[in-house]
Amino acid sequence: MAAITSDPVQPVDLTISCKNLRNLDALSKSDPQVIVYLDGREIGRTEMINDNLNPRFVKQIRIDYHFEAIQKLRFLVVDIDEPNGPLEKQDVIGELECKVSDIVTAREGVFNGELRHSSSTKRGFITVQAEEVKEHREEFRLRFSGIHLDKKDLFGKSDPYLEISRSDGNSWTLLYKTETIMKTLDPVWKPFTIPVPKLNRGDPERPLRFQCFDWNKSGNMDLIGEFTTTTAELMDGKRQFELILPRKQKKKSYKNSGIIQLKEFEVIKTHSFLEYITGGCEISLIVAIDFTASNKDPRDPNSLHFMGPHNEYMRAISSVGSILADYDEDGNFPVYGFGAQLPPRGDVSHCFPLNGNPSNPEVRGVDGILGAYQSALANVVLYGPTKFSEIIRTSAEISRIQNSQDSQKYFILLIITDGIINDMQQTMDEIVLAANLPLSIIIVGVGNADFAAMDQLDGDEVPIRSTNGTLVSRDIVQFVPMRKFIHDTNPAALSRETLAEVPKQLELYMRQHGVKPFPPSHRQSQARIYHNAMATTAVVPPPTYDQSNSQFSGQNPEQNSGQFSGQNPASFPLTQPPSDQNHQQHDDGKPSKLVYGDFSAHV
C-alpha cells in the first residue's frame, strides 16, 4: 500500500501593498482599499487605510493555488469615499490583472505590477507577495521486525505481515500493510514512510493498532497477535512491543505471541510543490507529436492533422503549453516528431526535431511549437509504426543532464498520439529507467482509436515492470483520451486533467533523491515590473490557418529558423490520386501513399 500523496490544491496567502498611488482627494490623501477577484469572482478585500498613498495592508487574501489551471487575478484599487457603500460610490485608482502563476514564479515570491486606468495616467504600483499556508508536512520512516513469533502453520513456519490501523471513534481505519515474508518466525520487513497527519490526524495520543497476521493461500488469515501504541510513544523512544492474542490472554502460562521491534525510526520533513517553485525550480515542457499514416491526409477535413479549429493536436499543445510556459525561465521547448519518413532519403525516424535542427530542437513558446508542427507536416512522409521508446529515452537524457541540487529543473514530456504503440515492452523499460529522473510523461490520445492498452502505461492498477522484472520506482505516466473533452466548452478542462498529478510526482522525485527546495531568495530571475497588466490571461487558442498563404495568423517567422524548407501540403499534389484505399490507416511500418514535401530539407 502506497503512502498518501499530496493534494494538488495548495492554499496561499496574498499580502498586498501599494506605492505612489495617485491622490484622488482634494483636501487630503486617498483612503485606499484593494478588492481581489479570482476568475471574475470577488474573493476578498483588504482593510481600508486612511490618508495613505503608500499603504501596506495587514489583511491577507487566501486563495487555493492549482498548478494545473490558469487562474486569473484582478486587483482593483479604490479610494473609499463612502465606507460600506457600493462599489460605484468609490473612486477607482487603478487595477492590475495577472495570473496566480505570475506571482508564485516571481523572484522571492514578490510580484510587482503597475496599476492601469482607462485615463492612461500614472496610477502607481502594486506589490503582491505569495506565501504558502504550510500545514504539518512531516513523515515517519519506519522499519519493523518480528522476534520469535508464534508458529501458525502445521507443516512449516508462519508467513507474517503487519497491518497498521488508526482509531477513528468506534472503528479502525487501515493505513498501511507490509509485504508478506514467507516461512519465518523472525521477519524483517522493508522500511516505509507514512505522513504523520495520516497516522494521528493531529492528535499524538490517538491510538494506533498493529496486527500481525499469518498469510494463508486460502485467504483466511490467522491473527498471530496485536498491540496498540500512539505516535507520542514512538516519538518518546519506545521500540519493543509485545504481541498479544486476545483469546490466549486469560491463560496463566501465556506471556505473548512474539515481539515486534521498531528497528528504524526517522522523522522526515517533506517539502511542497510550491516550495520548490518559489525556490526557483523550473518546469520545462518537451513535446512529441505522432506523424504516423493513420492520422490521414492533412488536407482531408477528417484528418487528425487537418489545420482547422478542431485540430486535436493543436488543442492539446495549446492547453498544456499555455500552463507550463509560465514555469520555464527562457520559454524555449524541445519539440519532436515520431513515425515519419524524413527528407532527403526517406529514412524512418521515431524521434526527429520538428525544427530540423538536431543540435538545438527548441522553439520559442507555444506559437513556436505550433509553427514547427505545421512546417514539419509540409516536409515529411506520414509513415509508421507508432513507437514511444526512443522519444522517452531522448527526453530522459535531457532531464538527466540538467537537474541537480544546485540547478533544479523538472521536465514534462507531452506525447500526442492517435494509435496504439507497437513497442509496449521497450516503452515500459524506458519508463522504469525514466522514473529515476526528474521527468513526468503525459500521453494524450487523439481520435477514436481503442486506447485500452494505454492503461498499462498509466500504471494506476498494476505498476509497470521492466523486462528484467524491475518495478517502477514511482508513477510518472498519465494517459488522457482527448475525446473525453471534445464537447467540453471549457478550454482549461484538458490541462486540469493532464497536469493534476504533476505536483505530487515532482515532490516524490525530489524526496527520493534528497533534493531540497531553495529559499525564495535563491530565484535567479531578475525582479521585474509587470506592465502588461490588462492583457488577457486565457488559454492560448490554436492559431487560425490561412490556406491561401500557408501560414498561421500571427506567426513570427523568426521563431521557426532552422526548420524544414519544404512546401505546404495543401499546395502539393498527391503522388497517387486520392481514394478510400489511400485513406486507410497504415500504422504497421508500411509506407503511406500520402507523400508530402519536396525533400529539400537538411536534417
Task: Based on the model shown, name its key terms.
disordered C terminus, flat, alpha+beta, 7-stranded mixed β-sheet, single chain, 603 residues
Concise synopsis of the structure shown:
The protein is an alpha+beta fold and 603 residues long. The chain contains 11 helices and 29 strands. The protein is 16% helix and 29% strand.
Task: Provide a descriptive summary of the structure in words.
The protein is an alpha+beta fold and 603 residues long. The chain has eleven helices and 29 strands. Strands 17, 18, 21, 22, 24, 25 and 26 form a seven-stranded mixed β-sheet that branches. It has a five-stranded mixed β-sheet with strand order 4-1-8-7-27. Helix 5 packs antiparallel against helix 6.
How does the SSE layout of this entry go?
Layout (H helix, E strand, L loop, with lengths): L8 E11 L12 E7 L2 E5 L15 E6 L5 E8 L11 E9 H5 L5 E5 L10 E8 L5 E10 L12 E9 L2 E7 L14 E4 H5 L7 E7 L7 E8 L1 H6 L3 E3 L16 E11 L3 H6 L3 E9 L21 H13 L7 E7 L1 E3 L4 E3 L2 E2 L8 E3 H13 L3 E2 L6 H14 L6 E9 L6 H11 L4 E7 L8 H5 L18 E5 L11 H7 L2 H11 L16 E2 L14 E2 L4 E2 L51
Parallel strand pairs: 7-27, 17-18, 17-24, 24-25, 25-26
Antiparallel strand pairs: 1-4, 1-8, 2-3, 2-5, 5-6, 7-8, 9-12, 9-16, 10-11, 10-13, 13-14, 15-16, 18-21, 18-22, 19-20, 19-23, 28-29
User: Structural class of the secondary structure composition?
Assistant: alpha+beta
- What fraction of residues sit in β-strands? 25-35%
Instruction: Report the count of strand segments.
Output: 29
State the distance separating the first and last CA atoms. 48 Å
- Give the averaged pLDDT, no decimals: 82
Number of helical segments with 4 or more residues: 11
Helix percent reads 10-25%
Principal-axis shape: flat
Task: Detail the poorly predicted runs.
Answer: 1-7, 524-528, 530-603
| Biggest β-sheet description | 7 strands, mixed
Tell me the Rg in angstroms.
29 Å
